[in-house]
Design goal:
Elements (H helix, E strand, L loop, with lengths): L1 H44 L5 H48 L2
């Protein structure tokens, strides 16, 4: 019984650790993009503290975040549906072999 309790803990620990590491890399990437976009906007508007430049930067980042969220969500939904269909197909094949 103890072994059955340890496996889910190990799995949960590994899943949590991997999510944390992936999030850390995501933060580093976001900071790099933040700097790149800020540099591009300030190059266009020649003033780092321009209200117009900051507004355009905020709108650009918001649009990018929304677009990427939509793309990633759609890809995730498609992948889940594909996995579910494959599992259903395997299950049906297994059941048909059992009935023969």
């Amino acid at each position: 019984m103890a072994d059955a309790e340890v496996k889910p803990f190990k799995l949960q620990f590994l899943e949590s650790l991997s999510a944390l590491i992936i999030s850390a890399f995501g933060l580093v990437a976001a900071l790099a993009w933040n700097d790149a976009i800020q540099s591009a906007v300030s190059a266009v508007f020649d003033d780092d503290d321009s209200l117009v430049g900051k507004t355009i930067y905020a709108l650009l980042v918001t649009c990018l975040a929304v677009a990427m969220t939509m793309i990633i969500t759609r890809a995730t939904v498609r992948t889940k549906a594909s996995i579910s269909a494959a599992d259903d197909k395997k299950k049906a094949k297994k059941e048909s072999k059992g009935s023969e």
